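Issue 218. Parser rejects a valid record. Input:
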Amino acid sequence: MLKTKYERMNKNEKKKVIEQYKKTAAGKEMMNRLIRLIFIGIALILYATYIFVSDINDLKWTHYVTSVPLICVGIFFIFMSLRLRKKVLNQFAIKKK
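Output the parser choked on:
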């Protein structure tokens, strides 16, 4: 897979792009939503592990049916949030040059 402009930037350039993006109205809203998605993903993973560990001595098939999909959805939320952040920042970097 080809690297995007944002991926090819060094650490300082990435920080500048993030700061400039956060100053825009759309940037503030988007970053808040992406952070919220990460927290939801972490909460889903923690809740699924709680369901699984709470009755470790008396596991039933319902524990597996509920905890495994919740963990998968939590990982999906985190992964897609990070991917979307990279995509949005790349579009902003290309537009601003």
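Fixed in the parser; the record now loads. The CA atoms of residues 48 and 66 lie 7 Å apart.
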